[in-house]
Every structure is written in C-alpha cells, then in structure tokens.
Amino acid sequence: MLSRRKLAFTLVALFGFFLELLGTHGRCYAYGDVFLVRFLLVPPSIVLMWGVLGWAAWQTYLRWGLVAGVLTPVAVDFLVLEPSAYWTGLWSWGKTWTPRVWFGSSIGNLVVYVSVALFAVYIYKSLAPEQVRSKQDSHPSSV
Fold first, then answer.
1. Which ranges of the chain have pLDDT less than 50?
2. Could you tell me what percentage of the chain is helix, strand and coil, using 3-state DSSP and rounding each to the nearest 5?
3. pLDDT for the residue numbered 129
4. Are 42 and 35 in contact (CB under 8 A)?
5. E-only strand ranges, the chain
6. With contact defined as beta carbons under 8 Å apart, do 116 and 19 qualify?
7. Angle at 136 between CA 115 and CA 16, to 5 degrees
8. 3-state secondary structure 30-79
C-alpha cells in the first residue's frame, strides 16, 4: 500500500506532468535531444523533478513557512534549471503567452512553479498532517 507521503509525492508529480502536457503541447517549449525517452512529449525525469521540487517546497514550508516553501522551487528554477537548460539545450522556449524574463523563460513559467509549490504544500498538509503537528510540537514558542 502506498504511504500517504508517497501518495502526496505521486500526486504532485502528476500535477507537474499535467502542466508539462499543457506547456509542451501548447508549444511554449520543447525538450532537447538529450532526453531519449518521452511520454506524450514529456521526459519521465521531468515528472520526477516536479515530485522532488514539491517535496522540497513541503520540507521548506515545514521549517520556514509558506513564503519560503513557495519560493524554493522558484529559486531552483531561477538559479539552476533555466541557466543549465539555456547552456546545455535541455529545453528551449518557443512562443509564450507572457513576457520572457530569464534565459528565455516567461512569467508564465514562474506561475507554474508557484502553482506546483502551493499544490504540494496543500497535498502534503492534507495527506501528512502529522508532520505539521510534529513541527508545532517541536517549536512550542511558535504556537
């Protein structure tokens, strides 16, 4: 049986996959040839990345709160993913519905990262509330 945390991870990864379907099929971006395996234009490793970024948002939320949790995936994208993709050809940006801001990515990309982070915090909080309670118990001055 899938644990609640694994279920949360899976749901966040699937949410990321859904957003990837919108982005790739909307021709906002395309993945480079470095990704040999794709499912409906989306590399499975990218789906796993969304799960990891959602988990990171959750862990950061538990320690430092919602704003930090939401900004964690945004920071990873801004500081690591977009520059890496630009220089290595992991993906390239096509037409976007919002202005481009960083290495070809758009404001819409920022909205996607924030959406996944918020979704992750909500799902983990719903499925693993014991982690929130244990955080509160370990910091009685913050209650």
1. 142-143
2. 70, 10, 20
3. 79
4. no
5. 29-31, 91-93, 100-102, 105-106
6. yes
7. 20
8. EECCCCCCCECCECHHHHHHHHHHHHHHHHHHHHHCHHHHHHHHHHHHHH
- In the structure, how many helices (H) and strands (E) does the chain have? 6, 4
Which pLDDT value is given to residue 103?
81
Tokens 């929130």, residue?
Answer: 132
Kindly give the interhelix angle for 107-127 and 129-138, rounded to the nearest 10 degrees.
Answer: 80
The tokens for 142 are: 């913050």
Provide the CB-side half-sphere exposure for 94 (13 A, CA): 10
Q: What is the DSSP letter of 117?
A: H
Q: Whose CA is closest to 117, among 44, 47, 55?
A: 55
Residues in Cβ contact with 109 at an 8 Å cutoff, skipping those fewer than 6 apart: 77, 82, 96
20, amino acid identity: E
Beta carbons of 87 and 104 less than 8 angstroms apart: no
- Count the residues in the chain: 143
> Which residues make beta-bridge pairs with 91?
31
- Per-residue burial over 73-106, b = 16 or more CB atoms within 10 Å of its CB, e = otherwise: bbebbbeebbeebbeeebbebeebeeeeeebbbb
